[in-house]
Structures are given as C-alpha cells and as structure tokens.
Amino acid sequence: MKILGVLLVAFSLAFSAVDINSASAKELSSLKGIGAKKAEAIVAYRKAHCFKNVDEIVKVKGIGKKFLEKNRKNLHAGACKK
User: Which of 5, 57, 60, 70 is least buried, going by the fewest C-beta atoms within 10 A?
Assistant: First the structure.
C-alpha cells in the first residue's frame, strides 16, 4: 500500500503544471519550445515583473502565442514572491 502512495505522489509531481512565478530555469526548460536561453529570459523578466496570469508570459522576448497555446495546460502563475 505504501508503494502505491509513493507512486501516486511521484506521478502527480511529474505531471503538475510549472509555476512561472517560482520555477527554476531548469524546470522551465522542461516545457516544449523552451531552451536554456528562453528559460533564463523568463526568470529575468520575473525578477523585474510578476506574472499575474499565464497569458503574460508572451511579454517575455522570444515567447509567443504559439508557445503559450502549446503549453497552457502545463503552466500556472502562482503567487508573486516579491
């Protein structure tokens, strides 16, 4: 029974949405269409501005609406940490 619980927790973590207000560049790089350079751009933008919702990610240079639509279900804008 314990094994099942551990598997369920691991599964939910593996498929949870990436919080664009707290994710590391490495975590952001796991998204489709995001490499190290774009991940760093998201982190830099986040330091200056907080994402109020996932739609605001297109304000980051190099991130477009196509990316947003491909990844919308995998994105989340949690509380700002400023």
Answer: 5
Check: CB of residue 25 under 8 Å from CB of residue 39.
yes
The pair phi, psi for residue 16, each rounded to 5°, is -85, 160
Class of domain 17-76: mainly alpha
The answer for residues whose C-beta is within 8 angstroms of residue 52's C-beta and 6 or more apart is 77, 80
What is the residue extent of each domain of the chain? 17-76
| DSSP state letter for 49 | S
Query: By the 8 A CB rule, do 63 and 38 touch?
Result: yes
pLDDT in tens, 29-72: 989 899 999 999 999 999 999 999 999 999 999 999 999 999 99
Q: Give the N- to C-terminal CA distance of the chain in Å, as an integer.
A: 41
